[in-house]
Amino acid sequence: MLEFSNLPDSRPYQLFHQYYQExxxxxxxxxxxxxxxxxxxxxxxxxxxxxNLKYIDGNDWIFFTNYKxxxxxxxxxxxxxxxxxxxxxxxxxxxxxxxxKKIDLIKSDEHFKGRIKEKNAVAIASNQSQKIESYEAxxxxxxxxxxxxxxxxxxxxxxxxxxxxxxIEFFGMAKIHGG
Length: 179
Description:
Blueprint: E1 3-5, H1 11-25, E2 33-40, E3 45-52, E4 55-57, E5 60-66, H2 70-77, E6 80-87, E7 92-102, H3 105-113, H4 117-125, H5 135-148, E8 158-172
Parallel strand pairs: 1-4
Antiparallel strand pairs: 2-3, 2-6, 4-5, 5-8, 6-7, 7-8
Helix pairs in contact: 4-5
């Protein structure tokens, strides 16, 4: 579930909030999930992946990830992203262009402490985007972490990013578009 606080009065933010509530009411699966695209200047590659938006606090749209993964490296090397929400239940698409930065460690700590222990165990056990030996090896590492680690302490390599939109486009998919 996405949490809203200190929402600006500007029309795009108010529309996003309204359309998000409509998507939730229409039982849109994972309405908080969005595709984020970034550019990594060292590899000269554009990449996209889905992440879960957790908070909109003022102008900061916040999600969490592993700082050692390729997306975090791309964000560090090039501070602009594009984001795309696609809510089929309400026939709404929202494109966003934004700048991105790490959030402060205290906010990351607070969020991590509030998660269920199984999610934290996955975050601690994960060697994100690294080649894996086998599914069984990952499952074993997860079980060890679940049994032996302090699951309320956020690892240094995990935390939040906030993006601040400078462009938001709403596209309601009418029947004349063939959808």
